[in-house]
Design a protein that fits this description.
alpha/beta; Rossmann fold; 2 domains; five-stranded parallel beta sheet; two-stranded parallel ribbon; 7 helices; 7 strands; 11% strand; globular
Amino acid sequence: MTENRQVFITGAADSAADSGRKKIMRLMLLVLIPFILIMSAAEVFAGNAAMNQVTPETKYIMIGDSYAIQPVQHPEQNWPDQLYKKLNMQDSEVCIIKRGGYGFIGKHNRKAFIDLIRPLESSQNIKAIIIAGGLTNDLKFSKQKIRKAFKKLNVLLKEKYPNARVYYGAINWKKKKAVQRKINKRKALYYLFSQENGWVYLPRAQDALKGQKHCIKKDKHHPTMAGVNRIVAAMYEDLKGYFPVS
């Protein structure tokens, strides 16, 4: 009887010890998991932050409007991030500015392309600047005002990045036919303004979403993942003959 009681007590003690260890492990996991998540997020943020600035290694700058942050759920799949990889650019060589961009002229808290460029460091190492978007957002402004905005931006780019070539793609979409007709007229102007400033105009980019209603979100404006992929494919075809730049 005594022996059985000792076995029972010992077993109970072992069970209590196991329970205690499990509680400690659970507490450790509760502490470690958030820490790991925070560190991972910090690492991603640091990586993104590094690509939001011009460094001595930077050779390429990409600038866009709200199309450049689609799809919002998968930011690593937006057109700038896909495109630089397809063009065989290295992470350290690329500066991507895509949040807050609106067009050649800003509106309220949305910034003009020139406002996205101003805070960046100047560098003679920049070989190419790729700008896309803005045409749809700029429709409300006169062609004289937009022409002036093109020229003003070009002057700043030459000052900050004298060795860079500028490439421009007028990606756009509007469902209403009347608005689309206005867009079609503006395309010719944006081609002209690009030529006036010595930029390379990207013809395929302007029609990447033409007639592709299934590539547009329910907001009737921004591209779905399929739309983003079409933008990337069009811009790649326009640019592949120019890159990589030596």
